[in-house]
TrEMBL record, chain B:
This is LPS export ABC transporter periplasmic protein LptC. The keyword NADP does not apply. PANTHER family: LIPOPOLYSACCHARIDE EXPORT SYSTEM PROTEIN LPTC. It holds the Pfam family LptC. InterPro entries: LipoPS_assembly_LptC-rel, LPS_export_LptC, LptC. The gene is lptC. It comes from the Bacteria. NCBIfam families: LptC_YrbK (TIGR04409).
Amino acid sequence: QQAAETPVSAAAAPGYQRPTGPIDIEAQSADILRDGRAIYRGDVKVSARDFNLSGDELELRQLDNRQFVIVVTGAPARFAHNGGVGKEAPPVDANAQRIEYDSRNGVLQLTGEVRLLRGRDRLTTDILRYDLNERRIQASGGTSGQVRITLDPATLEQDTKDKQP
Amino acid sequence: MPKRPAPLFAFAITVALLGLTWVSVKRPAAQSTALDADRPRYYLDNTEWVRYDANGNPEQRVRTQRIVMLADDSARLTELTVDQLGGEQGPWVLRAPTGYSPPDSRRLLLENTVTIEGHWPGDPPLKLETQQMWVDPEVHQIYTETPVSIAGVARSANANGMRADWDADRVQLQGNVKVRYDPSE
């Protein structure tokens, strides 16, 4: 069992672009409100160029410069990040009670019963921060203080090779 | 909102002077059958019709090329523009080639490719298009159950139906909602 704040980083895939493309949202209903929020309900699906989100409800807050913050909740809410432009990085799949995505920096914050799969590595925790650009995972145990990581031997081997001069 | 007495058409007409023709419809020669609901009773051309709320403030304006009043107290309108919903600052402007107001109702149905300009609440203008849209002064809303497409700045949407209040504080998209956000647009 690793320390609570454990940066588990994966080298950014070469040629990886910030996810600035359009985002498509599907749902059964949507309420768009004067305060700039939009609330989507019912079988919510978000698809962006290289990641997807899904859940029961989504709240989108419009920010300046047409950027936005998305919060998806569900039982669970799900996130999937594909292997990058050339598929050279292992895909990441995660679920949690709540997933927040900020289009300004491409960072996701997962909270509540977080489970993440990256290739064959597995991580469970309460709070996890995932940087889409750098494919960087930072997990902290939150209230339970538990960060449980199971690394696949193949990943360990690869990491040691990467570190050799 | 106190229920107004239900005169056929509780409205005060501000009649544009241009091209007003009041033509009383002569009964067709072969007029022997029972009252035909669709039979026109009279029509007005180039009309601006303003509805006032209980406080005497304008709350709906309809400009139309022609209103035909029918025997069953319904009305058919052609080439109409509806605006000033909820007051002169009302954000919605609706246009349609035809419109219909049912008997004993204050509602107005816009039909046959309704185009609407308005605002996402608190946002730049957007354009909506649908086949039908109700304008309902009873609840101060516009609503439709026919597919609607919406295009705005950095945002577009489609849904099976829509409902929005006249002040555009809230726009509800209903059924099979698909929205695209594109920060780069």
